[in-house]
Amino acid sequence: MVFIIAVIVIVVGIGFYFNLRKTGRKQEANVSSLAILIGFLVAVFNLFTVVPAGTVGVVDFLGQVSDNTLKAGVNIVNPMANVIKFSIKTQEIKETMNVPSQEGLSVQLEISILFKLDAEKANQIYKTVGPTYADIILMPQFRSVVRGVTARYEAKALYTASRERLAGEIVDELENLVGPRGIVIEAAAMRQIILPPRLTQSIEEKLQAEQESQRMAFVLLKEEQEAERKRIEAKGIADFQEIVSEGINQNLLRWKGIEATEKLANSANAKIVVIGSGKDGLPLILGGN
Length: 289
Prior knowledge:
Largest sheet: 3 strands, antiparallel
CATH topology of the largest domain: Tetrahydropterin Synthase, Chain A
Helix content: 40-55%
CATH architecture of the largest domain: 2-Layer Sandwich
CATH superfamily of the largest domain: Band 7 domain
Radius of gyration: 49 Å
Shape: elongated
Strand order of the largest sheet: 3-2-5
Structural class: alpha+beta
Number of strands: 10
Distance between the termini: 137 Å
Number of domains: 4
CATH class of the largest domain: Alpha Beta
C-alpha cells in the first residue's frame, strides 16, 4: 500500500514538475522535485524488508503465499506483497485446569507447556490456520491430552516420581498431534498440584509411615550388625581362652611353684618353710617381716 502511494506521488510529482517548469514557476517546481525524491526513496525502501532475529517471514502477494519463508535479516521482496512475521522462539503457555484422576477425583493442576514453531512450516501454518495457531490448534489439544493422561494415573502419583513419567507422556502425545502441523513441543512442567484436603492428608500420612518403616528397618539392620560384631568378638575371646588353657597343665603349674619357692627361700626376708604341706605337695612359706 505504501509502495503504491509512493509511485502515485512520483508520477503526479513528475507531471507537476514539467508543467511548472513550462510556466516558469521554478519555486513550485522545486517542491515537486522534492516530492518526487521522497516518493522514490519510499519506493526503494519498500523493496527491502527486515526480519528480526528469532522470526521468519511469510510472503503473501495478493493471496498467493510463497512456499519459501524469509530468514532473519534484510530480504528483498515484492514491494506490493505483505510479509507476515512469525516467531520461532521458545514460547510458554501456562494453564490452570481441573483434571480427573484414575479414582475419579478432581485435581487442580497448574501446568506449563514449552513450544516453538517449525520455521520450515510457517507458510503452511499461515495458509491453514493463521497467526493465532496456538489458540486454535495447540490449546484445545493441550487441554485434552492433559486430561486424558492424568485419568490413567492415581492422584498419589502426582506426589511421587510418577509425575515425571506423566509429563513425558503429555509431551509425546501432544507432539504426535500437533507436530505434523508445524508445532514443536519441547517440555511440559507441572508447576503446582492441589489435591482434595483429605486425600492430601492421607497421602502425607502414608508417606510418613513409609519413612518411619524405612527408619526402623535401618535401626534393626544396625542392631543385627552390632549383635554379629559381639558374637564374633565373644568367639575370639573363647578361642583365645581355649588355646591358653590347653597350654597350661598341672606339671607346668607345679614347676612354676617350685621356681617361686626357691626364689622366696633364697631371699633375705625371714620366713618359715614347711616342706610338703602345700597343695599338690608344694612347700608352704609362712611368716616374713
